[in-house]
Amino acid sequence: xxxxxxxxxxxxxxxxxxxxxxxxxxxxxxxxxxxxxxxxxxxxxxxxxxxxxxxxxxxxxxxxxxxxxxxxxxxxxxxxxxxxxxxxxxxxxxxxxxxxxxxxxxxxxxxxxxxxxxxxxxxxxxxxxxxxxxxxxxxxxxxxxxxxxxxxxxxxxxxxxxxxxxxxxxxxxxxxxxxxxxxxxxxx
Length: 188
Description:
Elements: H1 4-21, E1 25-29, H2 36-43, E2 51-59, E3 65-73, E4 77-78, H3 80-86, E5 91-94, H4 97-104, E6 121-124, E7 133-140, E8 143-148, H5 149-156, E9 159-160, E10 164-165, H6 167-173
Parallel strand pairs: 3-6, 6-9
Antiparallel strand pairs: 1-8, 2-3, 2-5, 4-10, 7-8
């Protein structure tokens, strides 16, 4: 499990990075929330502007693997096959919670679209970068950051690749015997 010190560092480190770079950002303190749809509602922005961040384990062979932070718009799902293909892997899956928290220093639901571990690359779907501003939890469930996308790209220099599926595409690809997932309704 992630220690309290690591969580405090995971919150302070990106804020220092943003401040030191003179990035154009805002902080918002709110009730703790790790679900992207609910956090977006609390913060008052569209799901499309939310940076949903998930740690993905990519198998590169029998005994080789790498972890990446996959970042997609909040209304989308990570396309594991696209992540696998982007890294030339044989398989891709969600990292187990303990590994994801250890690699990022963040509790599940507060993972940021940035990596301070040189072995963990960030890959972002370009659909998220179409917005002037993106939102994400700041290493804690009760603090969020609104950051100009141009500033994010300059600071993080993420790899970009189409790694998301929109809910309509996910539903259309569901087999007839499996009920399609129902997207959460978000009212504004």
